[in-house]
Every structure is written in structure tokens, then in C-alpha cells.
Amino acid sequence: MPMNVKPVPALDNEINEIRLATAEIVNKEILPNEGRLWGAVSNSANEQNEIAREAKALRREVQEKVKHAKLWAPHLPREFGGMGLSFLQHAYMNEVLSYSPGAASLFGVVAPNSGNQKILVQYGTPEQHEKWLKPLTDGTMQSGFSMTEPHTPGSDPRSLSTRAVLEGDEWVINGHKWFTSNGYSADFFIVMCRTSDPSASGGDNDRMTQIIVPRDTPGVKIVRGVPVWGRASSHCEIIYDNVRVPKSNQLGRTGSGHRAAQDRLGAGRVYHCMNSIGSMWRAFDLMIERLMTREVHGGEKLETKQFMQGFVAESYMDIQSARLMTIHCAEKMESGADPRTDISSIKVFVPAAYHRVVDRAIQVYGAAGVSGDLPLAGMYQGARTLRIADGPDEVHKIMMAKLILRRYHAGESWDFGN
Ligand SMILES: Cc1cc2nc3c(=O)[nH]c(=O)nc-3n(C[C@H](O)[C@H](O)[C@H](O)COP(=O)(O)OP(=O)(O)OC[C@H]3O[C@@H](n4cnc5c(N)ncnc54)[C@H](O)[C@@H]3O)c2cc1C
C or N terminus of the chain, fewer CB within 10 Å? Predict the structure, then answer.
């Protein structure tokens, strides 16, 4: 079933046209090829290579069409090869391009490269743009973001223990990270380090700094890809053992690492939520398609069963509420209002709604729902993972309660209209 995207009356022509053009690529180039684009697993080793080769060529073909349609890299400014979209335009495009799992990469948005690109745009020097951002954008380099550690809680980034010490003109880094996504392919990592720079002024000592570490630097040891959901992965465990890089590899001023991580995650959470909404949209369409075609006891279609009708109504409400909450949050961010409560609320609510919507679709499909023939099983694992990554649910709920109560303690109440 193709994605049904029509112009949204409240949006301007430009973004409506972008959404329609994106849907056209999704419907014509991606959905019909979904089974071949990602190099499906095969029993024969030779055949597998052939399938992988064909998949790569097909992905290139689609990427060329995306570039031709001027839909490449929605997250980047024009001067860095992107579409130069505003924050809201990008958010609205995301729900369309994520209708097919993995499609974002065909539009030039590949995590964690995309987050790293944005940090490099915002914090990088012209030299760093030339050396790291440009090759990342034209696809000749890959990257990873190395923040989480096995022995300190990632939910409290201020507790991390990887340390960088300035010796002359070099940072010397020692630490142990894991879940550095894309670790095997990365040419460089952006590593979050606790830094102590005696020459830094204004209380910057002993704060966090993000430092670019090329993967081939002596002392960078990739221990393993940590298996995830029972499968091998490229989310790597890495030891940084007396790794020396030039001071000029630091991003922004010494001590700005925590701020940079917040910048990365804040907008990123809205984009992730719009991605989840695109995936929910797909799961919903798939569920209804099945309800309308599957006959059960006595030749009746599943759609006639009230249990199933309940699924339709509940999933509709989950998707609409998740979508409107996310758009409300995005509008608040765009207007310059304090969006922190809303960012945390979508970070908790949307993955949970996504989880419920996919769960119902899987139930409707029976065994096929958990098979590799449909995108639902992958979506289910993705939705569950989202409740941990980018800050676990509990931390966001605590943050929301603090922000809300603070306002009441200040003698105000909450204005739900704004
Ligand atoms: C697939 C995947 C990819 C990832 N990619 C990256 C990456 O590229 N780079 C990177 O740096 N990291 C990455 N991560 C790591 C992710 O950001 C962390 O897992 C996350 O921040 C949580 O940290 P933690 O695992 O150390 O959990 P912990 O901080 O140990 O928390 C564990 C649990 O404790 C509970 N909890 C924590 N704090 C509180 C509290 N205050 N009150 C009540 N309960 C609490 C929560 O339920 C939480 O889930 C990835 C993770 C996954 C699963």
C-alpha cells in the first residue's frame, strides 16, 4: 500500500511540495524494492554476495534519484551540500521519509553521521569542516559518537569517567566506551571526555569536551561489536588507551561538550519522534491491509471483529496524539519558547505509542508479524530500544516533573495553550 500524503492546509507550499516529492520517491522507488534494497539474507554464501552487491547498486540508484529531486541531506545547510531546510520543514519531511525502515539513509541521513555532521556544522572550525565534515557529507568518510561507558550511567552524562589531559599541544585520552554505533565503519569518533585545561578561564575546568579522534590513532582499540537483540552489531565497545590527538581536534571551546551534547539531542529528539511517527503510519497501514484481507473462522474478515476494531481505534489515537505532541514541541522550539518539558514528554510518549502500535500490527499478522518478511519485527525492536537510547524514560519523567513543579512553586500554573 503506498503512503497517502496530501498537502497539509496549515503548511506552506514549499514544505508541502517537499513532502509530496519525498512520498513519490518512497512510493515509487523504495517500497516496491524494499525486499531487495537491504541485501536480504540467503543460505548460499555466493548468492549472498550477489544479493549484497545488487542491493548496494540499487541503493546508489535510489540515492541518485533523491539527489536529482533535490531531497538530499535535509538536515544540512545548503553550503554543506544539504537542503537548507528550517527545523520545522525538516521535521515534517522526516515523517514521510521514514515510512519505509532504513529509507532515511537513502536521503543522506544516517545516524550517527547525521548528528555528528550537525555538531561539526555548529561547533567546527573551517579547518575541521574541510577535514571531517566535507568527507562525511560526500560519503567518503564514516563516523561514530562515543559517549556511553560500560561502568558509568549513560543516563547521567556528567558522571562519565573518560578523561582527556592537555600535554603541550595534544589531548591525551584514556577511557572505556561502549555502544559507539557505526564503530566498525567509522573513520573517526567524536569522543566525549572529561577535560581539565589549566589555561581555560571562567570555570571551564574539569567539564566535558568533545574531541575528534581518528580511528587509526595509536591506542584506539575496538574490543567488539556488542551483540544487540541477539545479533552481531556495529555498536562497538572501544578502549582509548593513551590516545594522543592535536588540541585543534577539540570541538568548540574547552568545557562546551555537555552543551554540544544537549544541542545534538534536543532537536534530534524531535526528528527521531517524527521518524517514529512515519514508522507508526506504516505499521497502521499494514495492519489495516491485513484486517481487510485475512479471513478467519467462517470466512469472515478480521475487520469485522470488535477486538480488531479496537486495535484500529487505539492505534489511530496513539498516532494522532504522538504526532500532535511532537508538532507542538517542534513549534515551541521554532518559536524560541522553552521546550524542555515538551522534549522530555515526546521522548517518553512517542516511543511507547510506537511500541503499542507495532505490537497491535504484529498481533494482527500472527506468525508473519514476527517474521523477517515484514518490517514489523525490526520496528518493534527499534521502538523498545528508543525507550533507553537518548536518555531513558525515567530520567525524562523526573525532568518533566521538576520543570512543571518549579513553575507552580514560582506562583504560576501551567498554560496548556502555549
Ligand atoms: C542500539 C543503541 C545504540 C546506541 N548508540 C549510542 C551511540 O552511538 N553513542 C553513545 O554514546 N551511546 C549510545 N547508546 C547508549 C545510550 O545512549 C545509553 O544506553 C543510554 O543513555 C542509557 O545509559 P545506560 O545504558 O548507561 O543506562 P543507565 O544510565 O545505567 O540506566 C539504566 C536504567 O536505570 C534507570 N534509571 C536511570 N536513571 C534513573 C533515575 N534517575 N531514576 C530512576 N531510574 C533511573 C532507567 O530505567 C535506565 O534505563 C546506544 C544505545 C543503544 C541501545
Answer: C
